[in-house]
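Incident log, structure service

09:12 report received: a user says their structure output differs between two submissions of the same chain.
09:20 pulled the input from the user's history:
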Amino acid sequence: MQLIDMFYDQIQDAVDRKVPFVIPIGTLEYHAHHASCGTDTMVVTGCLRELEKEKEIVVCPPIWYGVASYAVCEPKPSHFHVNEDTYAAYLYDVLKSMIYAGIKNIYLVPHHQTENAGLMPMTIACHKAAKKVTMEYMEDTLGKGWWGSDSYASYYENCGTGDDPFSDIKVIPLIGAEAQIKCGGFDHAGKWETSLMMGTWPENVDLSRCEQNTEWFAESAKEASAEIGVHMVKCTLEWLRETIV
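09:34 re-ran on a clean worker, output below:
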């Protein structure tokens, strides 16, 4: 279900049943000449589109602008960078609206600088916003000292379960570390990411433009294929299917 298409009663029902609410997290970023600048966000929405066909989830509107940084290129008209503190503050407000409204099964799914599922500025901003909201909500609703109270004596037994307040908002990469290995590889605007785009939004890839690429990271893009993309989507869906619960 797409959140923007749902009526209030449908949304409330999904909240009551703790259906996962998933927020695609991406960037608008330079992806050489052959792939569109929305690639990072679009591969998330494309994979969630497929997951939605088999699993009940609520797909929230994607957050397009992100912490792109200028590591991959100098300022370009296709590249937009949001400071990580600004980004975390924006996410905090979005998540606070959701948590205080009773939505307690939220997934932030980024795809940017997530090699080996490592922590980089944008992912860290997601974690920061999530934990800040959770801590403030628990204090607001249960008071100071909530965690140290006897009512939370079973906290460690419930870690990672639905009774763990820090599980209300989870941050997971689009492709987990093991899933990246199963996919065959992981890169930026090269063979693997380009293939993933071809497996989700093929109209946003034009391999004939590869001859214009000069950067090392895009050299392998000409080896991309829809077949590889289909395999990568399959591996990604296996990861998401097991992780989003």
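09:41 both user submissions now match this output. Likely a transient worker issue. Closing.
09:42 reviewer note: The chain has one domain: 3-181. The chain has a mean pLDDT of 97.
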